[in-house]
Amino acid sequence: MNLNHINIVVKDVDKAVNLFAQHFGFNLIVNRNSQMAVMENSHDFAMVIWGQVLNKKEEIPEYPKNFHIGFYQKDEAAVWNMYEKIKNHHDLTFESEPKKIRNTFGFYCYFENLMIEISVNPFKENVV
């Protein structure tokens, strides 16, 4: 059994689509009136981006503490490359530069209130 998709909730669907297309390797499948979009990466994993407006709310959605999505990089150099690529992105905020976190190396950033982790896979060597 494979994980098929994840559904994230954001206030600004178009900004999320642009971020994940430009920097995280996702391709847009459908964008329904900037209220809901479906994207897919090269590993046949889909991300459903659900607009908070569909929840009949206008504010930026809150996530439970420590909820996040993570993207593995091949090694520390790849983590640094990703950080350099996105560190000045106007829709992201950062906790710190890449560093040792738990049993790996990486960093956290936020799109709205969604935490995104970029790190080296601590369980396998040289996995992308």
From TrEMBL:
<dbReference type="GO" id="GO:0051213">
    <property type="term" value="F:dioxygenase activity"/>
</dbReference>
<feature type="domain" description="Glyoxalase/fosfomycin resistance/dioxygenase">
    <location>
        <begin position="3"/>
        <end position="107"/>
    </location>
</feature>
<dbReference type="Pfam" id="PF00903">
    <property type="entry name" value="Glyoxalase"/>
</dbReference>
<protein>
    <submittedName>
        <fullName>Glyoxalase/Bleomycin resistance protein/Dioxygenase superfamily protein</fullName>
    </submittedName>
</protein>
<dbReference type="InterPro" id="IPR004360">
    <property type="entry name" value="Glyas_Fos-R_dOase_dom"/>
</dbReference>
<keyword id="KW-0560">Oxidoreductase</keyword>
<dbReference type="InterPro" id="IPR029068">
    <property type="entry name" value="Glyas_Bleomycin-R_OHBP_Dase"/>
</dbReference>
<keyword id="KW-0223">Dioxygenase</keyword>
<dbReference type="InterPro" id="IPR051332">
    <property type="entry name" value="Fosfomycin_Res_Enzymes"/>
</dbReference>
